[in-house]
Amino acid sequence: MKASLLFSRSRWLWALSLILMASSIPAVRAATGIITSPHDTRQYAAFTLPNRLKVLLVSDPKTDKAAAALELLAGSGADPGARPGLAHFTEHMLFLGTEKYPEPDAFQNFIAQHAGGHNAYTGFEQTNYHFQVDKDHLRQALDRFGQFFIAPTFTGAYVDRERSAVDAEFHAKKKEDAWRGQAVMRQIMNPGHRLSRFRVGNLETLSDQPENPIREDLLAFYRRYYSANLMALVILGKEPLPVLEQWARGIFSAVPDFDARAPRITAPLFSADRLPVRVVAKPVKERRELRLSFPVPPLREHYKTKPLYYIAHLLGHEGKGSLLSQLKARGWANGLSAGADDDHRDSARFTVSIDLTEQGLERRDDATALVFQAIRLITSQGVRRWVFQELIDLTRMDFLFQEEVPPEDYASTLANLLHQYPTREVLSGALTVQDYDEALIRKYLAELTPDNVLIQVTDPDAEPDASWSRTPRFEAPYRAEPIAPALLRRWRSEPISAALALPAPNPFIPQDLTVKPVTDSQEKPRSILQTPGLQLWFHQDPDYPMPRANFYFSIRSPVANDTPEHAVRTDLLVEMTKDQLAEFSYPASIAGLEYEIYGHSRGISVRIEGYRDRQERLLAGILDALRNPKFDKERFSIIKEALTRELRNTKKQIPYRRSIAELYDLLIQPRWTPDEMLSALGPVTLADLNAFRSELFRRISLVALSHGNLQASDALAMGERLTRHLLRDAEPVRVPRAGLVRLAPGVSYLRRIAPQHPDNATALYFQGEKRGPQALAEMALLGQILEGPFFNRLRTEQQLGYIVSASDHPLLEVPGLLLLIQSPRADPAILTERMEKFLADYRAVLAAMPAEEFQRHKAALVARILAREENLGARTGRYWREIDQGLETFDSREREATAARAITPARIRAVYGKWLTGARRRHLAIQAWGGKPPEEDEARKEKTAGKPTAGSGEAIVPIRDIQRFKRGLGVFPETTEGSISILPNHAAKR
Fold first, then answer.
1. What are φ and ψ of residue 81, in 5° steps?
2. 722 shares a domain with 635
């Protein structure tokens, strides 16, 4: 996996080098002392308030959203020993009322009514609060937000209720393998290090204790750590910097300064006698993994060299001769990632994670040996100045041509970075690679030894016995075992395999980074090439003046998804092609040129995104792999097994996700269930796949979109290459879109499932009568209005679960509304009844809604519909969806916004009564019954299906056979009168 300087796969990269490339790239600039890209038109200012609260302001006159974030330099690492989860609980409580705005939903309702969103997270060293709101309401939102840190109430009634929400969050995570893996690691860590503690919290840890009521502990924690001197604030708005500064000073100067001290940890992450050690754990899902973790010295002070980034770049490379390439050649692995983990002020870890095959799990000692050989190869030959210079050039290029991200994400990240880097480098420091320091790189390489490693083996076939242990609370089974001295000696000194090699210079680094002048005056895509087999759309977009472009194309075939047998072959073809392309395409991804290939209901699509230069070279390689595959029998077996495992794991999804997937299985036609796909996958051979590939490409049509900073001649060259490679021997054919099942009015359909998870869930879906902008806008407005009250009633007040939502849910341009709850306590029938009761009760609230409140909701909806697309990819995605819909006017947003503006209170009340509570509503309930097979206790569940109290007179019709259910109902007719669907072309993927 490509190393990232933020150690994630996020593509909003910031990088800076003071060593200039020998090219036409302009130099970085410094404004108000902060280093910025010359292409960044926003203005920045930073200062510290008298109470020592750090502030960064971002003025962006073109934004249509405002945002703010505040990060506290204290997180779960500050939990008192007797109160695990207290920092997390405090984060929850700050949203539930302040002295100035005492209502528990005051902040949430204001944000929702002004086209915004909000969230927070508790990390080990920090707690981060953030929100986004319509650009004209930042001042009022800041006033409400600031009160979190000035005068929260910690109202006793909500303390009692909200700890149930924290407990529900814990139960939702309890069967997630990532959280269970962390729980296992905590058992190996030094118990004197705070990372070894439980951090989420639950009813046990947050209960009232004889001498310590939980509310008193909350107040004590808040007074100890929620101090201005530990806070960093970011405000982003359309206003000039002086106005933003006035608001920041006027509101946040009132945050008290308690002269707090952030927790510091002197204990080592692992005790000296604990490593090396190997731990075997049994996962919930069927997955096999080998993970090597090495404790290393703290990294923060070395941000200009980033030694672990350099090491991860080489160790995580996927090109020819790489560690992953050799693991795959031996049949041991499907994927690999490397990078820093637990990167904190006082400690850090470097981790290598390998996605193992069945054979790889059996040969895990040999796979581990190959990892240590690769590390020794880097140590002996890989610390090279030219490699580091390549990273300088690449990261600097990405910094200079960085794309924007949503304001809330930007503010949240910058608030975090203010605590990590000097203010001058807050934009560039996270990805600054400046100083080549060979000695420092070698110092960190010296930590990556067999004597300093925790090896975690994830084995789904392990059979725990009396020798195994279970982690507290998460109850994850594991066994810790010493590593034999002979094995350690082998890993230290085994000769390096001659097949391992360091990467060559990257051939995909763009040379032409000029921004092409705009020569096409069209404001929307236009068709520039139409043949019997290909339609090519093109738009030179002046709104994103950077040397980037996106090229999407879809290969539509009538046999790609018409049967489950063909659907699994399409998936296999996609995965085999990606596997074949891995060594070729990986250098492109490092150079900022990504591709994605995926199967969907009409065929196979490819997306190429990134720097314009070298795109045609990448396209040529992809097309060659599609038309001239070199599929290996061993790799076919491995990929088939991985797909089999993925399909089996769907039953172990968290209940609310499983419920949504079930909704798609029920309503999209054609679409095949995991069981149907598994049955079809079993007998498939490589010969079958090759025969199917020929059949698929025999009758196809192509549609393509070229969008960004390029000219029509560039797009035509790509289109001509598609024609040469794919249409030479193909017969053109029209392939219709997938259909959406049209539910019968006046029937309450009920589907019960049994996820392998202890939580319950219910999803209630309400379907509109027809497609079209008006119907979509009306259902979207209902979702906008119901979102806050539904959450407040069923989560904040009734505490039914942590995952509670109400939102519009259009499928294939058919309007819909989805109510969703996952609960560790209430069964699905109770959840259904509570949802129905809410809908019945809310009729009166809607009828009495003041005109001003209704107008706020309507304005918020229009703002959401017409939200500015921050980057090229977001706009390309919208164009692509509209092409898939056949909406060649590219005005779906404008049409839906126009329809939304025309909605009256009387009309929304009528729609509510007809679609959500009327006797003729179209309605489907999916109930996930906490891991119990549906046939168990069937009589009880028939009695407690959940009475449809809102839709009186409905017949409850259980769905036991999905395909039979679909055959008994028609689908909505095709139409080009649509809007943005929740399912882009690829999301209909199985």
1. -55, -35
2. yes
